[in-house]
User: Fold these one by one.
Assistant:
Number 1:
Amino acid sequence: MARTAATKRTARSAAAAQRPVAAEVVSAPPARKRAAVSQRATRSKVTSKAISKRGGNALGKNGGPDAAPATSTARIAESITTAIVERRLMPGTKLVEQKLADIFKVSRTIVRQALNQLSRDQLITLSPARGAHVATPSVEEARQVFEVRQMLESSLVKRLATTITADQVAQLRAHLADEAAAVQRIDVPGRTRLLADFHTVLAQLLGNQALAQLLGDLLTRCSLIALMFQSSHSAEHSHAEHVAIVDALERHDARAAVKLMDAHLQHVIDNLQLDPRVPDLVAVLKG
């Protein structure tokens, strides 16, 4: 009897010990399963953020995963921006959605996203009736853009003159060599891009990415302005002025650097035909 009672107590104890273990197994998945759940949750958060940033969904037109829509949008926007900077796309050029979709092998939805981004950057204009066109800056806009550049870049070189290192001067010299080579071989798109990039390189050397991005946007708009108002400022002249600015920075001469940058930008403005003369009809038509 004593042995039977002991056996029963042992069985009850074993059952009691097993019950919490069974409950734990039910309530918590194995380690591998927990990791998978965690990974799915993380991916879900990342996807939600990406969707939120794009302002759309993650499905393509056929309901499947789109082939990197954000990347495609950026690629189209960058290609159009580069063509504007290199003066291959003229102000007023019509940008047909279907033609762009065929060129980049994407849907018109992706093209529309890129055009909306460029419109926010004021590089193109969108009209329900006329569609998308490369922007045609006004005289007042041209003046305002260069006024902002003068304020920003004067402060930029003033500060950079006090912090620039020998390695950074060498980097600028390398950029100037690329400029000179492009000017010499009459590479118009290449030299145009390099002459504009000089100003963003200065901002990057200062370590201010926000300033570099802002200058990049302003310089792209300046390319449109130069096309619109027929700048006669020669590439050779711009390059020579860049060399003088770097010479002043290398000497840590902040005052000279500011003076040279102001003069450089003023020369660009002076060579824009912002105040075209109204022709005398008699003089034009009589002869």
Number 2:
Amino acid sequence: MPKLIASDLDGTLLNSGGVICKESLQHLSTLHQMGVYFAIATGRPLASTLSVLETNHLIESSPFPEFLIIEEREVYVREGDRFVSWEPHNSEYRSLEARLIPHVRAIFSQAEDELRHRGWRFREFPDEMITARSFSALLFDDAEQALRAETLIRDFVSQSPQPLRISRNKSELALRSPSTGKGNAIARLAQRLAFDPQDVLAMGDSGNDVSMLDGEQGFQVATVANADQPIKEVVTQNGGYIASKPRSDGVAEILRCVIEALQSAS
């Protein structure tokens, strides 16, 4: 049974408009009372993540989530109504990715002509965003273009002497350190809590969630009805649960199953 539940935000925990449904919040409260930790695992930066929590009244008036994983990399730990950076972990991995930026931008430059030749419209993160987030990415006009561009970018990455991983989240396509990613961050958090991999349940819906759903870390896995088809296939291959409902309503369905299983086991 899970001791730590980690959920993606956009497309998973959030319904349209950035709202978490009432049933999900109720189930998370029940699980908190049962001693199960909750972590949000997102590609968003900290300020944007905190804004979502504030909108859903999950900062001052809630004891959960206990942890935030932001930028697919950094872990923040709740202390009362604030979240504290896990150091030196966060600084180490932020610096690691910052050192990769010249390599990443060189690959993007090499691929630019071929990407534009295929008629795909995109732009790279502006310099100030690259500096602030310590990585770079290409932003395409839509998710379909990013999906098709991933195959081409993968060819360039395979020729690079610097190991990189591709992280695609809807219309954003980034090149990141293989040491980062939601799966690695959750695994390090679980280790800090002295939890086994099977004590973790991970939920996500898109390409940048693969590292926590593909079975490499040994987590229990689940997804929602609106998930990308490759995500549903990965979850099925790893014996996971696919909710019949989308987004936050699907998360509520998954959490209800967890509660029922915990109650039956007690």
Number 3:
Amino acid sequence: MSKFPIMALLSLVAFSAACSGSDDAPRAASPTAPPTLAAPTATVAPTQPAAVVQPSPTVAPTEAPPTAPPPTRPPAVQPTQPPQPTTPPPPPAPSGPPPPVRFEVRAANLAFNTTHLHVRAGTQVTAVFQNDDASVPHNLSFNVPGLEHGETCTGPCTVSQTFTAPAPGRYQFFCTIHPMVGDFIVDP
């Protein structure tokens, strides 16, 4: 260890004692000389240099690292009940056959007025065919197993046929005389 810090410390202690105004130390006064301060007497035992306050090593002040704000938790999410329906559920489908259905299909200018017909399986179907082509024969037939072709009539005329819709699937309706075709779709 260097002697410089120890010497500086001893000087500081001596200066501090001199400035404290203590009357413990004797003063020498001279009538002709200006008053001087007497150096304080301190007894330091040579065998105890450790008794003198040792300066601690000087550490340069360091800047504290910036502190991050404490982590925040997201607010707890309370489980919610699913929204309740505001309308009552529809009544169960009636057991038994569906109500009868009536289709009206027209032929004009060598074309049907529709290309799709939908019905539920087991429905009683009445197909009404109206031929608006004057002096032109047409019919309305379905490729349903067991069903004969519809009656041919020369327009203007109207004919009908009634049958029960077959098992679910895609069938066709058509004219057996002209290339007029549509889809007959049977839903479950």
Number 4:
Amino acid sequence: MLYLCIRPELHMAYLSKKTPSSSYFRDKYDRYAPVVWLFAVYLLCEIIVYPLGEFPLNDDWAYTKALNTFTTRHEINIGTWPAMTLLSQILWGSVFTEIFGFSFFALRFSTLVSSFIGLVFLYKTLHQLTGERKLSFLGSTALLFNPLYFNLSNTFMTDVNFNTLMLIGIYSCFDYFRFQKNSALIWISVVSILLVLLRQYGILLPFCFFV
């Protein structure tokens, strides 16, 4: 080792032999570490909040009622209270009630999952735009700690699911315009349909894409 220090050119040659494997793991770490840290921060926040409990929050009692009608009677009836199309919300929530059984927490958990997916896609979009992982991570945590976003993430309201679908759609649009991926067009189409079936003004995504 002392000889390598005296002969720096040999030291560089020694390091170059180690580069392929170490650079591979370094690249993997750089790629996934921000998402892992984002999840850790998110999990810590939820542990502090402790979102358990069998009770509705805000207006999600109406959406819960529509979902319960769908899962028990196998019919779509959003009632007179909701003003949106709501179908995507019902379908998303029904996946979790099918797995965990019907409960208010299961529905809140569905929103928490959707919320984190939205944060990941925001991170991916910001990273595509800036190329900076730290800046993209900070941008994602800024959304996480937005009081409205964090509060609504712990409900079965439609706001977070709509935001997540919109972020996926924006990322897909950017992916298509930059790389001309046909798969991105499929994602844009699917997300646009889900957005419209969640809230009527989800039509803004395909409108902006074609404009």
